[in-house]
Specification:
single chain; alpha+beta
């Protein structure tokens, strides 16, 4: 995906407010061998781009003053209640260096798996994003979790799926094998174990 940026020489909160009133967004790009650069963006263009999932999990072509360079979105500051972008951070990308970023998780066949169709259970999804590391060329736009074979009371962990080529999961804390999905009985349903326990208590 491509977007246009312009160098910004004036800094400070007053200058940023003037930019926003003019339909521009202050931003910064950093990383690589170059010094951090203050830039500005067209608000409408960046607003619509940021509302696309792939914009957050793709190597982007930033055309800065006519020169293109690859970058990643690193942080976005939104207005607390208005649909306004206040500031964006970008990181330069080196094709030879691995990057660490978060990518969205797409869960497929949640409503048609055996746990739902045959057993009437409810499928609960795990994380909406996963932290991964890879070379820029191997960055996936998303991680797919196919639940077509999920049975009643079944669970799917990270180790049960195959990550895209060249992609490695980066644990957060001690969670090295996160639970991605599980099938549960509908709320209020008495399971066999609970029923047996109740019968035992009644017998006592």
């Amino acid at each position: 995906m491509k977007f246009t940026a312009t160098s910004r020489s004036v800094q400070g909160s007053s200058a940023s407010r003037r930019l926003r009133r003019a339909g521009r967004v202050p931003a910064i790009v950093y990383g690589g061998t170059s010094a951090p650069a203050n830039i500005e963006l067209d608000h409408n263009q960046i607003y619509h781009a940021l509302n696309k999932e792939e914009f957050h999990a793709s190597i982007l072509d930033m055309v800065l003053d006519g020169q293109a360079e690859p970058v990643l979105v690193r942080a976005v500051q939104w207005h607390p209640y208005k649909p306004l972008v206040l500031h964006v951070d970008f990181q330069r990308v080196d094709a030879r260096q691995a990057i660490t970023t978060r990518v969205p998780v797409h869960y497929l066949h949640s409503d048609t798996c055996p746990a739902v169709k045959l057993s009437g259970q409810v499928v609960m999804h795990g994380p909406a994003e996963l932290n991964i590391t890879c070379l820029p060329a191997n960055l996936p736009q998303n991680i797919v979790v196919d639940l077509a074979g999920l049975l009643a009371n079944g669970r799917v962990y990270l180790e049960d799926i195959t990550l895209p080529r060249g992609v490695t999961y980066v644990p957060q804390g001690e969670e090295v094998n996160p639970l991605l999905a599980q099938a549960n009985p509908p709320r209020g349903t008495v399971t066999d174990d609970a029923a047996e326990e109740g019968e035992e208590n009644a017998a006592e």
